[in-house]
Design a protein that fits this description.
This protein has about 425 residues and is an alpha/beta fold. The protein has 18 helices and 15 strands. Helices cover about 35% and strands about 10% of the residues. The longest helix is centred in the C-terminal third of the chain and has 16 residues.
């Protein structure tokens, strides 16, 4: 019988990684001298996550940082109860900090950003998503953080073209810019990013509300781009996406609310192989049809995740042709694609690796088909409307769905049949 005493130090350190900061400071070290020494291991404190441990107060945070100043990743997401003064105190003592998550913290302002630049000289990753106090002035100050590589200021609505242009011009190692939800950005931002960061940028997220085809076409010059996300593509046309065929290293592409794209645009965008493409999300696009989906399958044989929710012109024929070409598919999201029905029975044959299927509001899909597929694929998780036999009009009124394991799916189905016969 293996006891805790026989576990190696490496295993115990991994176990301690699942404990809360409060337990690691006040309780675990009291067990024995060995545990006390392991609790001081730098590996245990490499990440300090206060987002999932709200019981850690401001005073306890100071105590932890004082005892363990080797932390490299600090997560304070949604912690509005910690004062900016305490945050600055932590930045002063965490000299090796590499990643900092302050998303949705109202304390973030120019003063706090100045402290980050002054004390966190090794910072590589900064997340200020949803911080209402993060503005152009903060971006100008942040240009002093020369080693910064990843910056997320999504939903910081006061940021404009001026701040982003200054930031991208003076941060030489920046390769990830996430600014979706920043509504005041225009083509000028893309032009600056392309001009200054052609060889380094790999990850880009933008809000497409004010972008034009000419601006998006410039993205084709970012030859090493791996992840691209553009939200709200309402104003973009086929000319914008046809240039994407040049982005041969793309691993992830997301285009939401792509109302204006047509078959011609998709066929042009996927005219050449995209062997690195793993994740593709094209939602709310009436122009995505069977021909487009077949072209995508032919171009992206290694795709693992596909989301074409609310693309209502896709039928069984196009989806089956697509599935034949992507044997490694693991996630398939088809919410509100109303013409689908028979493709379900082809899942075990063409996509045996599938682990998640979303068919919410797909009113033509039969429950017995889902049950048959879940029996053949034990790891498959299915998101679906409880009443699949109702009319489309009734389906739209349903506001709940179930995510079940195969065992839960079979048990629920059996209970429904028993109650019906009774």
């Amino acid at each position: 019988m293996v006891t805790v005493r026989k576990l190696s130090d490496e295993l115990l350190v991994k176990v301690f990684g699942y404990l809360s900061p409060a337990e690691l400071v006040d309780q675990t070290p009291l067990v024995c001298k060995r545990w006390r020494d392991l609790c001081n291991d730098t590996t245990v404190w490499s990440t300090l996550d206060l987002h999932h441990h709200h019981q850690v107060s401001e005073s306890m945070l100071r105590r932890i940082v004082w005892l363990h100043c080797s932390t490299r990743k600090l997560i304070l997401r949604y912690r509005s109860d910690i004062s900016s003064r305490s945050m600055i105190w932590c930045f002063f003592h965490l000299k090796d900090l590499r990643a900092l998550d302050l998303s949705h913290c109202p304390q973030v302002n120019s003063r706090l950003v100045s402290a980050i630049v002054q004390f966190c000289k090794k910072l590589r990753n900064l997340n200020v998503n949803g911080c209402t106090g993060f503005d152009n002035e903060c971006l100008l100050i942040l240009t002093g953080c020369r080693k910064l590589r990843h910056l997320n200021f999504s939903e910081c609505e006061t940021v404009t073209d001026f701040g982003v242009n200054a930031m991208t011009s003076f941060l030489p190692k920046l390769n990830s810019v996430l600014c979706d939800g920043v509504l005041s950005l225009h083509d000028e931002v893309i032009e600056t990013i392309v001009t200054k960061k052609c060889d380094t940028i790999t990850d880009l997220q933008l809000d497409g509300g004010n972008l034009t085809d000419e601006g998006v076409e410039m993205l084709a010059e970012l030859l090493y781009l791996r992840r691209l996300r553009i939200q709200y593509c309402d104003n973009l046309t086929d000319h914008a996406i046809q240039s994407f065929h040049c982005l041969r290293y793309l691993e992830e592409l997301s285009l939401t609310r792509a109302h204006s794209f047509s078959t011609t645009g998709f066929v042009g965008a996927f005219a050449r192989p995209h062997h690195f493409m793993r994740i593709l999300e094209i939602t709310e696009c009436s122009g995505l049809d069977d021909v487009s989906l077949t072209a995508i399958g032919r171009s992206c044989p290694n795709l693992t995740d596909l989301n074409i929710s609310w693309c209502r012109n896709v039928t069984d024929d196009g989806l089956i042709c697509f599935m034949e070409r992507v044997p490694h598919l693991q996630v398939l999201k088809l919410q509100s694609v109303h013409q689908l029905c028979d493709f379900v029975l082809h899942i075990p044959l063409y996509t045996p690796s599938l682990v998640h299927l979303n068919v919410i509001s797909c009113s033509l899909i039969r429950e017995e088909d889902l049950l048959a597929v879940s029996a053949q694929l034990p790891d498959l998780e299915i998101a679906y409307n409880r009443d699949l036999g109702c009319s489309p009009k009734t389906t739209k009124m349903l506001r709940y769905f179930d995510v079940m394991s195969p065992r839960q799916f079979a048990m629920t189905n059996r209970l429904h049949r028993m109650s019906g016969s009774a």
